[in-house]
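Researcher: Here's my situation. A collaborator sent me these components and asked whether they could plausibly form a single complex. I don't have experimental data yet, so a predicted model of the whole assembly would be a useful starting point for our discussion.
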Amino acid sequence: MTEFLTIESIVVALVLVTTLVAIGARRLRLPYTVSLVVMGLLIAIPTSLQLEATPELILAIFVPPLVFEAAFHLDLKQLRENLVPILFLAVPGVLLTTTMVGGMTALGAGVALGTAVVFGALIAATDPVAVVSLFRALGVPRKLALTVEGESLFNDGTAIVIFRIALAAVLTGTFDPLTGLLDFFRVSLGGIGVGLVLGWITAQLVLRLHDRLIVTSLTTILAFGSYLAAEQLHVSGVLSVVVAGLLVGNVGMGGATPSTKLMILNLWEFLAFLANSMVFLLIGLNIDLTHLWENLDVLAVAVVAVVASRAIIVYGFSWLARLWRKQGYFPPSWRHVFFWGGLRGAISLALALSLPAAMPGRSELQAMAFGVVLFTLLAQGTTIQFLLERLGLTQRSPQWVARERRLGRLFATQAGLRRLEQLHWDGLIPEEMWVGLKRGYAHDRKQIQEEMNALFREYADLEGEMLFQARRGALQAERGALWDARQRHLISDPVYDELAAEIDYRLEALDLIYGTTYERQSVEDEV
Amino acid sequence: MGSIVCATRGGEAGRRTQERAIALAKERGDELIFLCVFDPSFAGPLNPALAGAVAQEQQWLGRALMSVAQARAREQGVEAGAVVLSGTILDCIEEYLCESGASTLVIGEAKIDSPLSTFRHGMVRSCARHVEHNTSVEVVVVSPAE
């Protein structure tokens, strides 16, 4: 019981720290994940706090929610449209990274080739959480964010599979390329298969069950269960979660009501935030700065190898793509974001921690992995915003912000007026006061609306965007009203299904019209 | 009395174009019709249910945009008609001009290549010449400076 309470106290303390860091980072406008790592380092120095981030803890507890939430949000259609760059970066890209980083560290740091290849594999997976959250905040083109997220989702799985094969080869002293290749396909395809089966079953259940609590529970079971099931079968747990998340997010959610969707999205946003916070705090707590200092020379070689191999892969792919297709797969300026946004994080840390004691050069490999993670977070994570702004990829123009500001003031004014109406209705303010206050609010509202109108006159595109937003909101409200009517037995299930499907198609069509209109612009201008 | 057709889709040039068409209708005492054309083939091949929804949604958005334009005209004392069509933009405009016997077409040239602009920058004037040549209808291009 005492041990349980101690663990609970530590968990509560960690959540408290992450929450305080979140508050501080928002106030000081610092990157959240970087702030967590720094906080972890600061806590670890004076307290010598030893909170061991075991690979099981990271891979089985923290990685599934992170991966599931990201996969759940990915649009399968958009993913398909960008599949070539995503799969290139996630499969041959990871293999090439493993080889190049392995070769460079073996040559530059004097690490045995096999050991260096293991390092290449464990450091190959990108972890752009810090970058993606920044993308969302800055409003970069959706296709850019999707490619970065998609690459990271799939390369996690690939890197883990290659890492296990390379590690087994080093520990046993034998490596048969054919067996290795077959193992790679078995573990990868096996993971995808488990994800497909469990994801499909869950999606079908979600389509048939309309209780939001049950549906939300099902997604939770799927996220952790698909990982565990795949690992039990000795296939890739991460790939299983990716596929399961994609299926339930794209297929299952088609039949979910707005209220169910909202509940699921809120839950997964929170779980991913919690997992993400814990992982980065634990990274900080587990990095031993003295150990890094002692291995500074090999660490420098590792950083150069990782950055150089990322550059070769991204710019090389872009060059090849333009030979293959004149316009390439993405605008030229995006290459720099793919290159500099290739941060490393949780997966690399977990794999480094999972190295067995018998592994030759284990201590150096861990120092190299932690050092690279720290470098990418501190150097790349803190400068990516500057790069995005220099490349003109942050879409929030001054007029867009001006529109948002007026919209915000309009919301606030309306809320104030509603509250006054309530007070007046309840008889809590005298009639004269109500009339005076109402006029004041009406005046404010008119002024904001006139300002908004003037803004629209100058920037008519904003009006078009607002029309899309308003229409989307109205369709979602229609969907919600249908659900309510069904719950009150005003309409039958078949009628509900028919009408809800119509609205879902209209929402999808609206997103398609909007997405095509706006994405076309950002891509065409760049090419 | 002639009739003015104002082709608009609510893009960057939309508001200017509508204002100019309204002013022209008042000045000449002509009938005013707002025309909105959507091309449903923009999204490539889609499943039939989604393709149907896209066409319906385009019609819906078109009607909403045209209602806004009509309300603007009404504010200035002009009662305008509205038509929403689906098909290839230029073909639809030309066909409608011929069918309705319109005397003037008003179209807008976007300030920049804005996301919602119908034509790429520089294409509007060549399209205007094309329409004038094919239909003998006067075409007024509202430039960004107006």
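Model: Some features of this prediction you could bring to your collaborator: The longest strand of chain B covers residues 31-38. Residues 97 and 121 of chain B are 23 Å apart (CA to CA).
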